[in-house]
Amino acid sequence: MTYFNRHRRLRQTANLRTMVRETHLHKEDFIYPIFVVEKENVKHEVPSMPGVYHLSLDLLLEEVKEVVGLGIKSIILFGVPNDKDEVGSCAYDDNGIVQQAIRVVKSEFPELVVIADTCLCQYTSHGHCGVVENGYVQNDDSLALLTKTAVSQARAGADIIAPSNMMDGFVAAIRHGLDEAGFVDTPIMSYAVKYASAFYGPFRDAAHSTPQFGDRKTYQMDPANRLEALREAESDLAEGADFLIVKPALSYLDIIRDVKENFNAPIVAYNVSGEYSMIKAAAQNGWISEKEIVLEMLTSMKRAGVDLIITYFAKDAAAWLSENE
C-alpha cells in the first residue's frame, strides 16, 4: 500500500479536535462597546444594529451588570450628547456624558476595565474628528482639544484612553497631556491603523457622527494600503501607545498579521458595525447560522494574531462560549 499522511486521525471526535485546536477564544478577549445618551429611561435599539442600544445613565448599570455576569472584563464607552458645537466642547466637559458614565460604572464595578473612546466626531456639529477651518480638519489645533478630552476622561476614572481620531501626533500629544496631569499610569489604546472604510455606516447611525460635509479620507487610511499601516503603528508605539488597534477587522486580517509580526505590543481588532450588521441581517433572514458564523469570524481574528477584540457580539459570544464549556 502506498504510504500517505492520515491527517484525519486527529479529527475523529470532538474531544480529539479540541485537544489539537491551535486557536482559542476566551471571554476575556472581548471588549463590549456601549453607547450612552444624555436622557432618562432610554433603551432604544439602533435601527441598523439589532441588539445594540442607546442607553441612558439610569439604565446603564443594568447593562453593565449583564456584561460582567457573562464574564466579560472590559467595556468601551461612546457618548451621544444632546448638544454639539464647532469644537466638540462636550467631549472635554468634566460633566460630559462619557465622563458621567465612567463614574457611574466605576462606582459599582471598580474591577471592570473601562475604556474611553477619545474623539470629537460625536460632539462636533460638522461630524469631523477635529477642528475645521475653511472646510479642512486642522491637525495641530485638534490635538489640544483631544488632549483635554483624554485628561478629562482619565480624571473621571477611565482605566484606558482609546483615541480614535487619526490626527498626526495624537498619541504623543495625549501621552504628554496625561503625564502632565498626573496620569502616568493610564495606558493608551491607540486606533493606530484605522482605515477610511465603508463598514462604519451603522456606527455613525448609533453615534450620530456622520460628517456633514466631505469625508474622512484626509486623516483615515486608504483601504488599498498595507505598508502605511506599519508606518502608522510604528509612529504610535514610538509616541507612547500601549495597545495597537486595527480597524476594521474582517477585511484587514492580513494587516492584523503584519502588525502582529512587526511589533511587540498587544494587538486589538475592532470588529466594526458593518461587519456586525451584515451578519445580523443574514441571520434574521435565516440565511446563516449566527452562532457558528460569529464564532468562526472571531476565531479568525485571534488566529490572525490579535490579543483582544472590540465587538458588538461580545455578549452573545460569551454566552455561547459558556454553553460550550
TrEMBL record:
GO molecular function, one term: porphobilinogen synthase activity
Catalysed reactions listed for this entry: 2 5-aminolevulinate = porphobilinogen + 2 H2O + H(+)
Residues annotated as binding Zn(2+): C119, C121, C129
Keyword check for Lipid biosynthesis: no
PROSITE patterns: D_ALA_DEHYDRATASE
UniProt similarity note: Belongs to the ALAD family.
Co-factor(s): Zn(2+)
Pathway note: Porphyrin-containing compound metabolism; protoporphyrin-IX biosynthesis; coproporphyrinogen-III from 5-aminolevulinate: step 1/4
Taxonomic source organism: Bacillus mesophilus
Function: Catalyzes an early step in the biosynthesis of tetrapyrroles. Binds two molecules of 5-aminolevulinate per subunit, each at a distinct site, and catalyzes their condensation to form porphobilinogen.
Name of the molecule in the record: Delta-aminolevulinic acid dehydratase
EC number of this enzyme: 4.2.1.24
